[in-house]
């Protein structure tokens, strides 16, 4: 397979192809979603072949497991583990066994807009290039999934609330830093 044969998706294209579900949070270049049964909720065939996603992708597995290849290296995402995909990396799904995922998918421009310190993120990038799939301890898992719950709560419509967008940006920034830990 040559480079021209690899599909490339932006976040917007990914949303168009896979669709949005109730409970998904799509905010200014960032998608936060949970899929209880990936096999029923995502057209996994889209990722059966090498695919390039032009966005930061963070996957957290809360149940089951999935095997995939990222930049020619095979990985297995299991319960309480995290996978970080850097923009432009190539991913291919191999199997998903009743896997439940939380996902954060952010465009690079979104990361800049919410003022995440790129120097702090660079340490994560260096680690992720070597090992993009990591098991989390209970405290790390609780901290990150707690941030998901807070973001979900804050994203509920509040008519006339001028503070909510800034609070949401801050919460997403906090989630990013928790992942970097």
- Count of DSSP strands: 9
- State the oligomer: single chain
Give the strand content. Answer: 25-35%
Overall helicity? 25-40%
What does this structure look like?
This protein has helices spanning 11-18, 38-41, 108-113, 118-130, 138-154, 164-180, and strands at 7-9, 25-26, 30-35, 51-53, 56-70, 73-78, 81-85, 90-106, 133-135. The protein contains six helices and nine strands, in the order E-H-E-E-H-E-E-E-E-E-H-H-E-H-H. Strands 1, 2, 3, 4, 5, 6, 7, 8 and 9 form a nine-stranded mixed β-sheet that branches. A hairpin with a 3-residue loop joins strand 2 and strand 3 (30-35). The radius of gyration is 16 Å and the shape is globular. Helix 5 runs antiparallel to helix 6. 36% of the residues lie in helices and 33% in strands. By secondary structure, it is α+β, with helices and mostly antiparallel strands.
């Amino acid at each position: 397979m040559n480079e021209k044969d690899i599909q490339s998706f932006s976040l917007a294209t990914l949303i168009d192809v896979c669709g949005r579900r109730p409970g998904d949070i799509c905010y200014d270049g960032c998608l936060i979603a949970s899929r209880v049964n990936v096999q029923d909720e995502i057209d996994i065939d889209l990722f059966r072949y090498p695919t390039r996603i032009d966005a930061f992708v963070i996957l957290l597995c809360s149940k089951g497991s999935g095997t995939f290849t990222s930049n020619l290296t095979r990985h297995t995402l299991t319960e309480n583990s995290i996978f970080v995909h850097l923009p432009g990396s190539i991913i291919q799904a191999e199997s998903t066994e009743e896997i439940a995922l939380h996902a954060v998918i952010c465009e690079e421009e979104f990361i800049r807009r919410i003022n995440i310190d790129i120097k702090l993120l660079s340490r994560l990038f260096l680690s992720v290039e070597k090992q993009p799939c990591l098991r989390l301890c209970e405290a790390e898992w609780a901290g990150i999934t707690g941030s998901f719950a807070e973001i979900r709560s804050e994203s509920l419509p509040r008519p006339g609330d001028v503070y909510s967008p800034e609070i949401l940006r801050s919460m997403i920034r906090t989630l990013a830093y928790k992942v970097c830990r």
